[in-house]
Design brief:
With about 60 residues, this protein is an alpha+beta fold. The protein has a domain at about 15-45. The protein is built from one helix and two strands; from the N terminus they run ββα. Strands 1-2 form a two-stranded antiparallel sheet. The termini are far apart. This is Metallothionein. It comes from Halobaculum lipolyticum.
Length: about 60
């Protein structure tokens, strides 16, 4: 997974999929994922959404 076109989650070439690119904070670099499935799996496995809910009032 050294190439900029490799998915950060599974290592596949993102150019043959429907890629999603994520930029965190003020970073200039984007992290590529094959699709939302790989991004969602990464978020779930790393627990990145734990404790980060929005306040929504209905």
């Amino acid at each position: 997974m050294n190439d900029a076109t490799d998915c950060a989650y599974c290592g596949c070439d993102v150019t043959v999929h429907d890629p999603v690119y994520v930029r965190e904070g003020g970073a200039d670099a984007e992290t590529p994922y094959c699709n939302y499935g790989c991004l969602a799996a990464h978020v779930e496995e790393e627990g990145l959404a734990v404790g980060t809910t929005c306040s929504v009032e209905f």
